[in-house]
Amino acid sequence: MLVLVVDSSTPAVTAAVAEVTADAVALRAERRSVDARAHGELLAPAVREVLAEAGAGPGELTAIVAGLGPGPFTGLRVGLVTAASMGQVLGVPTYGVCSLDALGLAATRGLDASAAPDGEAAGRVLVATDARRREIYWGVYAAGRRVTEPAVDAPAAVAARAAEFAAGAAVGEGAQRYADVLALPVRPEPCFPPADALAALAADRVRAGAPSEPLTPLYLRRPDAVAPTARKPVLP
Amino acid sequence: MTDEPLVLGIETSCDETGIGIVRGHTLLADAIASSVDEHARFGGVVPEVASRAHLEAIVPTMQRALDDAGVSLADIDAIAVTAGPGLAGALLVGVAAAKGYALAAEKPIYGVNHLAAHVAVDTLEHGALPEPAIALLVSGGHSSLLLVDDLAHGVTPLGATIDDAAGEAFDKVARLLGLPFPGGPPIDRAAREGDPEAIAFPRGLTAPKDLAAHRFDFSFSGLKTAVARWVEARQRAGEALPVADVAASFQEAVCDVLTAKAIDACRAQGIGTLVIGGGVAANSRLRALAEQRAEKYGIQVRVPRPKLCTDNGAMVAALGSHLVAAGVAPSRLDLPADSAMPLTIVSV
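YS: structure for the whole thing
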């Protein structure tokens, strides 16, 4: 079963075609460009390229998997609306995956246990992506699962929480950016939500032909909007 | 008739998620979801609120449009989408959706100019547009006069507002008068009971010295302040506010300047067709005054019905259909959303 995977929750714009079989998930093609300001320009051509490289027409897709974030809103919506619109045309289900979960899975279990980095894989890892405004989206993971729910906070607050939950290392571009504040060893990879981990987290739903899901972004913040105060008079 | 292109249009530049379907100049579907109620308490459109609403609305609105037209995406010849100008985050939802639809259905995509679409929508009501024509585009975000010599390739800006858009002035005056957002419809209604000559509000950029530099430009900021001063003076004096008279006199000031400059543009260019579009074109006084003044000079006024004047997907589809018929090449799949897209660019 071929699935399209998209994620635009971080500065990385990711598109991939993955093959989901009864007991494995394998990437057939992947494109990743890192440009926080060009999600809208980069994603659609990347989708076309991975389909071509996988030798598959859009009609051969069984499902579409999309990273739900959390992530900066404008870029995040590009991936979700691309997945939703393609799913609607093709009549295939769309499945959402928390983008931090994909990083957490790759960082603490790995898709291939033998690839786990020097025994640390069993420990707890802080996953952090950049939320801008000097905050990070974060979660603590162990053995591929959430220890904490996804949240957004200032790096110093996250450092305290990560210590509380006994994280021994950190991953993600948010962790790299605020490494000095987090006071944890930061691993260079995974830096962005990996396509194979996103596919793996939806694989059971793909295999079961689960019902399509609405792709609701994990915003974690309310829109910046304040109701107007009393109007300022123009007369002196 | 059936060899005319079947074109789908997607509009998300502000607070309306619009998807329209046309065949040639025939409107087949015009589905709209609006987030206006979510913005009302803020007194204006909140970009992030609008963007979130577009994401939720796009798939169901598409389904409604396809059902209304009785077609599937496989039948569509091309997909047009507003690429700008507008709110950046809101535009991006529509552009990314259009790319997803185009990719999955393997159809050409056209990224088009929102303002040119406001002109093109009139073809759905009155058929092919004679060129050249003068277009007056007035909405909450824009107030422009354009020379439309070739709608498929480029329009020439003649003038625009130098401060507030006309629709913005309606919203602000409505708030002063305790009328709801958006301000256009309630002011139009209140004005029907009022005297348009009760208060002599200023007509921006109409004095001879202003006309020399700004013959086809508009200014509504001074008018808005003049209304505020007048209203506050009555309130301080403890007098009752004659809402209908203020609404009528304000509306008259706006419509007077808009129509006078539009007719002047037609006469200056020797052009016999004036198209009016944008949300403010739904205003009943603007429509009546334009007709009345144009008649004197034998100028034909074309204003689509109010539902086609406000933002919608049909206008984008109408422009797309015009581009396909004119043999214009489609856009690339990496086309950007451009919040400040200039009027000289009709499609990217």
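YS: worth flagging: The mean pLDDT of chain A is 93.
IM: good catch. Also DSSP finds seven helices and ten strands in chain A.
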